[in-house]
Write a structure and sequence with these properties.
By secondary structure, the protein is an alpha/beta fold. Helix content is 51%, strand content 12%. Helix 6 runs parallel beside helix 7. The radius of gyration is 30 Å and the shape is globular.
Length: 660
């Protein structure tokens, strides 16, 4: 048989005895630790999750390898990113302890996600205690346990790798003390990388950060099979058989998000909502369906060689015409408000912010989108202040996913260094919503207090915004969030800070939505604001800044007809993925290495060709998702043809540094 250099490399590593408390069993199918028909449960974090979900995941490859040795097994998986030993214990009690019959084997991988992130409860003593408890419980139930050390985090000897070294040492000691087979993935990956040519970034065994690519998955599977007792000769045959297993790899996915947007006024946005209600559809569904049809039409009319940018441009043009047609039924205002219309009261009267002052808006994705969208609350606040005669300068400082920990960490660069006069602080949703990676109440209190302390020390006036609801319902998250908001209210009162109680404003606004209103919610997804939610937030902030009822009424009216005060937005995802063999994947990788370009550069045009061809083949297609599903057949054929041509092109077979 003829093996690629990389498979020969894995075979060389496979010849090294597995690191286990006892030596690996002697070769021969009869001496394998696992027996025909046994169930193997893989329990762990993102390593297990990726090993199961990937077409070339090591769990599938282990199962295929054992089947080749006439040892068919029943694999199962419980793996979630971020799991620490305490989560594994809870999953064991909930899912494994109640199984009947129990699995014969449990392969455990844990450490990288939680230790790298520094999550609470991830200290080494707690890790050791919980891992020992997990192993003891499994063994007491008659389940054999194999322990995996964690993957490398990067391919460059990062601090994260050094951080988890002690945890891997603990896993090695646990395997020895408990007499459990050990697959030392970390040691083997480290040794393997030393024998491989360098590549740019994490490209030899990883794709991205700590996620195994097809080569890393094969290496992990090979090591697990060794620990189960597969001999070097058997392993070489298994590795060769993997290459032609159907659907053992994927090309892609090729993904892109096409966006259609048409600037409109808020009055026109409200009119579109009413038009959508007349069609018994939410506005976003109407716009999304319209844009999807425009993308199909753009594909159908496209030149066969058109790229993604050309499709986007054509679809945008069609979308603009469709939105214009929808707007024909929207009544125009009798007299558009001119930019120079005087405020309802003397300029700036009663308003805390003064003209020329800078206002920083510190927050998470709600604040980030509040700046990025024309009808976002940050933009509405600035325009509302202008209506009240105050020309303020915004400093957008919202970052998606941020918790109080993150905001405190970037406070200096995002806010303090820019020397604002005011700072609004919107924080709390992610601290609760993100669970383990969020912040508990005591940590949140310390972080928020530190943010306010540092801002006030820099002579910045602070306004507190209570955190808005999570899913607009009385759920466990909002019950937990209540204590966070109570702290914000007490802090504002204690420090005599302006408070915009947006959580309470949101609850009241939801109660007051008329039954016949064309909208039922204030968010697009339960968290991030729609146009009405952004207006609710902006009015709450403006009220806290001192605007009176008459000023707020004029602000609301003025918002309606400000040019480009809102937008009609929709998007459509382009997605192509081809199920191929590992041999075909290797061929594509070798061609990409020879061309010194990523694989996606070669297959993205094939995706567009497949979509264009499918749109022309089916002139009646109106469903973009269905069209894309049908196009996968064409895309897969194009990819496999490319792989065949790559394999027969005479290119030397080698592991390229750009492999995925």
């Amino acid at each position: 048989m003829r093996l690629s250099p990389f498979l020969r490399l894995i075979l060389l590593v496979a010849l090294v005895p597995a690191i286990a408390p006892g030596q690996s069993p002697a070769s021969g199918s009869g001496s394998l630790l696992v027996k025909p028909g046994q169930q193997i449960l893989f329990l762990g974090d993102s390593t297990i999750q990726g090993g199961w979900s990937s077409a070339s995941g090591f769990i599938r490859l282990v199962s295929l390898g054992l089947a080749k040795e006439n040892v068919p097994v029943k694999p199962g998986e419980i793996g979630t990113m971020g799991n620490r030993p305490q989560e594994l214990l809870a999953l064991y009690e909930k899912n494994v302890a109640t199984m009947s019959p129990k699995p014969d084997w449990m392969v455990v991988s844990c450490g990288l996600d939680a230790m790298r992130a520094g999550l609470p409860g991830s200290d080494l003593p707690t890790f050791q205690e919980n891992m020992k408890t997990l192993v003891d419980k499994a063994k007491a139930a008659g389940i054999k346990v194999m322990i995996l050390t964690t993957n490398i985090a990067y391919e460059t000897g990062s601090p994260a790798d050094k951080k988890v070294a002690a945890y891997n040492d603990a896993l090695r000691a646990l395997a020895k003390d408990e007499n459990c087979p050990l697959t030392d993935l970390n040691a083997v990956e480290t040794a393997t990388l030393k024998t491989m040519p360098p590549g740019p970034g994490n490209t030899r065994l990883l794709m991205g950060e700590a996620t195994l690519n097809t080569h890393g998955q094969r290496l992990a599977a090979s090591e697990i099979l060794k620990t189960f007792g597969v001999s070097p000769a058997q392993l070489a045959e298994i590795q060769e058989s993997w290459l032609d297993a159907p659907k053992s790899a994927t090309a892609g996915p090729v993904t892109a998000r096409l966006n259609g947007t048409v600037p409109i006024t808020l009055r026109q946005y409200n009119g579109l909502e009413a038009a959508a209600m007349n069609r018994h559809q939410p506005l976003q569904i109407l716009l999304s369906g319209t844009y999807a049809a425009d993308v199909i039409a753009a594909l159908r009319a496209a030149d066969p060689s058109a790229d993604m940018a050309a499709i986007q441009k054509s679809a945008q043009s069609l979308f603009e015409k469709d939105v214009a047609n929808l707007l024909k039924d929207v009544p125009a205002p009798a007299a558009p408000v001119a930019a120079s219309t005087p405020p309802a009261s003397p300029a700036g009267e009663g308003v805390l912010v003064k003209s020329g002052q800078k206002v920083a808006f510190l927050g998470d994705s709600i604040t980030q989108f509040g700046w990025q969208h024309p009808d976002g609350y940050v933009n509405l606040v600035i325009r509302g202040l202008a209506t009240a005669g105050v020309q303020a300068e915004p400093i957008p400082a919202g970052v998606s996913g941020n918790t109080s920990r993150d905001m405190l960490g970037r406070l200096k660069t995002s806010v303090l260094d820019k020397q604002p006069d005011w700072m609004t602080l919107s924080c709390g949703v992610n601290d609760v919503w993100h669970g383990l990676t969020g912040c508990d109440l005591e940590t949140y209190k310390k972080n928020i207090t530190a943010i306010v302390d540092q801002a006030q020390a820099a002579k910045i006036q602070v306004m507190i915004l209570t955190a808005t609801m999570i899913q607009e319902a009385d759920n466990a998250n909002n019950q937990k969030l209540a204590a966070y908001n109570d702290f914000l209210r007490s802090l504002a009162q204690e420090r005599k800070l302006p408070l915009a109680d947006l959580n309470e404003e949101e609850r009241e606004a939801l109660k007051s939505i008329p039954p016949d209103a064309p909208y039922k919610h204030l968010t697009v997804d339960g968290v991030h604001m729609n146009a009405h939610g952004n207006q609710m937030m902006a009015l709450g902030v403006l009220k806290a800044f001192g605007l009176g009822d008459a000023q707020l009424a004029q602000v609301k009216e003025r918002w309606l007809d400000e040019p480009n005060g809102s937008s009609a937005d929709a998007n459509a995802g382009i997605y192509c993925v081809a199920a191929i063999t590992l041999r075909e994947s290797d061929a594509l990788e070798q061609q990409a290495a020879a061309n010194k370009k990523p694989i996606l550069d070669s297959i993205t045009p094939l995706c567009m060709q497949a979509l264009i061809e499918q749109a022309k083949l089916d002139p009646n297609a109106t469903d973009l998702a269905a069209l894309q599903a049908a196009a996968q057949v064409l895309f897969t054929k194009k990819v496999t043809d490319l792989a065949k041509s790559s394999a027969t092109s005479g290119q030397p077979v080698q592991k390229g540094p750009g492999g995925q």
